[in-house]
Amino acid sequence: MTAPFRSPDPAGRPETHRGASGRRWGLRIGAVASVLLLAASGVGHAMVTGVESGIGRVDAFKGMSDRPGGGDGLNFLVVGTDGRDKLTGEEKRKYHLGGAPCHCTDTLMLVHLSADRDRASVVSLPRDSYAEVPAHTDAVTGRLRPQHAIKLNAAYAEGGPNLTVRTVEHMTGVHIDHYLEVDFTSFMRSVDAVGGVEICTVRPLRDSYTGLRLPVGKSQLNGGQALQYVRSRHIDGSADLGRMQRQQRFLAALIHKITSSGVLMNPIRFKDVADTMLQSVRADSGFGANDLVDLGQAMRGFTPSSSEFTSVPLGNLAQPVPGVGSTVRWDPVAAPRLFRAIREDRPIAEHHDRKPRATVVDVPPGQIQVQVDNGTDRAGLGAAVAEQLGATGFATVGTPGNSTLGKVGRTVIAYDPRWDRSARSLAAALPGAELRPVPGQGPAMRVTVGRNHTTVKRVRAEEPDPKPGAISAITGDEAVCP
After folding, report:
1. How many CA atoms lie within 13 A of 193 on its CB side?
2. CA-CA distance, 178 to 145, in Å (whole number)?
C-alpha cells in the first residue's frame, strides 16, 4: 500500500514519506450529529416524544456539587465509545474493526449552542490531555479517591460519565447542560441513513490501520467509509491532532448534508433517521422531548456557516507525567480565553461574510519559506506581494529586490523538486504562476513576480498547524467541499 504522506518538516528536510506505529481507536463524532439532527427537526412534540423515549439513559450528573455557573446558551459534552457489538462480521472485516472493544472513550467534544440558536461551536478536547480528576468515591471499591492526575480519556474508565463530566467542568470552567454518548454502530448507521456524506481532500489519504483510501478531490462516503475517515490517525505525522481536524471537516459536511437534503422537513424520513441514530445513543436523564422541540423550532434555518470548529489551544504536545505517561498540556493563556468565550456565548471563529473563501492547500503556508523578487517595471511590486503572502500565512524570507531573471511576463515559482507539495500550495496563492523546478535549490521557494500578476489569493491548510497561544477556528462553510 502507498505510504502515508506527511507535512514538510519546518527544519527544512525534504517532503519524504514515513510510516506510523501504534494503534488506538479513533475519535467518534456521531453523537454531535445526533444533537444537531434531533434538535433541528422541529417536526412536533408528539413525534419527538416517541423518538426520545428510545434513547438510552445515564445519570451523568448524580451527586454533583460546586459546579460552574451556567452562562448563556446550551452546552453538551459529547463522547464516543468503541462499541461494535451490533456490526456484522463482514462489516468488521471490511472496515478494519477487529479486536475486542474496550468500551472506553477517546472522543470528547464540547458543543455549545448559542442562546439565540444561530451558532454551534464545537471544541475538540484531545484524549491525551493532562487532567486532574476531582476527589470521588470509587464505584468498585467504595473508597474515596483523592484528586489525582490522569489522561482525560481515562476519567471515563475510572468513574464513567459522571466523573468525565466533573473532570471537564473542572478543567474548562464551563457548565455542562447535557451529556451524549455514541458508539461505532450508531455512527455508521446514521451516516447511511442520511444517504452518505461528501468529503474533499487536496491529497490522497491512506491509512493501513483503518483501511482508509481516498483519492484527491471529492469522495462520497458511506457509513463504514466515514468511520474509517474519522478514526484514521496514521495518515501522517499529525496523529491525533490531524484526526481531530478531519473530524471537524466531516461534521461540517454532515451538517451541510442534513440541512440541505430535506430530511429536516420530512417527518417520516426524519423519524427513520432519528430511530437509526438512537439505537446506540445514551444521554443524561434530563435530555427530553421539550429540549428537542425548543431547539428544533430555533434551528430550522441552520447552515454550515452557522457552525464553527476548533481544538483546545495546546502548549506542550508531549509532557511526561510519572505514572500517567506522555500527556498533552493545554496552553495556560489561550485555553482559558477560549472557554471564557464559550461561557460568554461569543463566537470563536472569524466569520467571512464578504471575504472570498480561502483556497484549501496541502501544506500549511507557515511551513513554506518564500523569497520574492520583482520581475516587472512596477516599483515596489515585489515588496507588496511579499507582504500579501505574509498576510495569508507564508513564511517570507529575505528582502525583496529586482529579479535576476530580468523582466518576465509570467510570475515564476522556482522550487526544489523535493518540495513539490509546498510549491503547489504556494502556486494556489499566485494564480497563473509558472512552476519551474530547480534541483538543489533547497526548501525556500523563489518567486519572481511577472507582469501577469493580479492578486494574491487567500489560502489555508487542509490540516493547519496548531500555533502555540492561538485559537485556530474555522466556520463550517470553510470546511465543506466548494
Report:
1. 25
2. 25
Query: What's the pLDDT score for residue 274?
Result: 67
Burial of residue 77 (number of CB atoms within 10 Å: 0-12, 13-18, 19+): buried
Q: Give the count of alpha carbons within 13 A of 224, CB side only.
A: 14
Contact 358, 456 (CB under 8 A): no
Tell me if residue 123 falls in helix, strand or coil.
Answer: strand
Question: CA-to-CA distance for 98 and 95, rounded, in angstroms?
Answer: 9
How many Cα atoms are found within 13 Å in the side-chain-facing hemisphere of 183? 17
Closest CA to 358 of 451, 228, 457, 256: 457
How many other C-beta atoms lie within 10 A of the C-beta of residue 321?
A: 13
Q: Are 32 and 79 in contact (CB under 8 A)?
A: no
| Identity of residue 248 | Q
Along the chain (482 residues), what's the average pLDDT of each consecutive run of 10 residues?
A: 36 42 37 49 50 76 88 87 64 64 69 87 90 86 90 88 94 93 75 88 86 91 87 70 80 78 68 67 78 57 77 86 91 94 90 69 92 94 95 92 88 96 96 96 95 93 66 78 78
Q: What is the dihedral of CA 41, 43, 45, 48, to 10 degrees?
A: -50
CB 408 within 8 A of CB 450: yes
Give me the residues paired with residue 199 across strands: 219
CA 439 to chain centre: 36
3-state secondary structure of 324: coil
Q: What is the CB-side half-sphere exposure of residue 78 using CA atoms within 13 A? A: 27
What's the pLDDT score for residue 1? 36
Bridge partner residues of 78 (DSSP): 109, 180
Q: Are 400 and 372 in contact (CB under 8 A)?
A: yes
pTM, 2 dp = 0.75
Q: How far is CA 460 from CA 394, 417, 436, 447, 479, in A?
A: 10, 22, 23, 19, 11
CA dihedral of 281, 285, 288, 294, whole degrees rounded to 10: -100
Q: Which residues lie across from 326 on neighbouring strands? A: 320
How far is Cα 256 from Cα 274, in angstroms, rounded to an integer? 17
DSSP string, 287-301: --HHHHHHHHHH-TT
Question: CA-CA distance, 231 to 30, in Å (whole number)?
Answer: 12
Residues 6+ apart with CB under 8 A from 464: 245, 364, 472
Q: Which pLDDT value is given to residue 438? A: 96
In sequence order, what are the beta bridge partners of 327?
A: 319
Identify each DSSP E strand in 388-465 by its residue range.
395-396, 401-402, 412-415, 434-437, 445-449, 459-461
Grid cell, residue 438, equals 530547480
Cβ neighbours of residue 203 closer than 8 Å, sequence gap 6 or more: 5, 216, 362, 421, 462
